[in-house]
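Practice problem: predict the structure.
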Amino acid sequence: MRAVIHPALHPAAWRLPPARLLVVEDHPLYREGLIGMLQRNAPQLQCRAADSAEQALRLLRAHDDVDLVLCDYGLPGAVDGLQLLAQVAREFPTAARVLVSGSEDPHLPAQARAEGLLGYLPKTLPIPEWLGALARILAGDGWFPPSAVDEAAPTPRQRAVLQYLAEGLGNKDIARRLGVTPRTVKYHLTAIYGALLAANRAEAVARAAKKGWIRLP
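Answer:
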């Protein structure tokens, strides 16, 4: 990471709530640089680190209080970052998931959004924007690059959430129907709103119905 922005000078750091993060990154220089930047600018964040998918899962199973997993896309071994984060969702549904990458693949942010992730952070993102993006993510709002427009069909779980939205159910009722937490429903809604470029539930339902993703009751 580049220059350090002191929280007294950067409002984005003030908006970051206390949270427990797991950073999954196999390159030591970037991993240590990212964690160092976060600790200097936002000491209210507690950071653990893993250098592989296997170590990340071991840490999560030992410490199931992680609020946010920041995972690099290009991990060593047969499992990439998206695959690891999919497993994280199955085992730890209350943990927010964000993909970090230096890849220039223009479709990767859309893939991340389609998988229900709460964000996609390019490694080239300037520190002030990193802090602002994290503030949005930890608030449950999500953050993706402005150019990332996802036209992919929703995942089966997102389609189920959309259908329940069309039926007028609230987050708690949807969570009970799906057997997940209301926070997980909120993550799915963030991904759905982003994919449909919708500002609210009614707009999301209308656009999903127009695309043929759901049936209106």
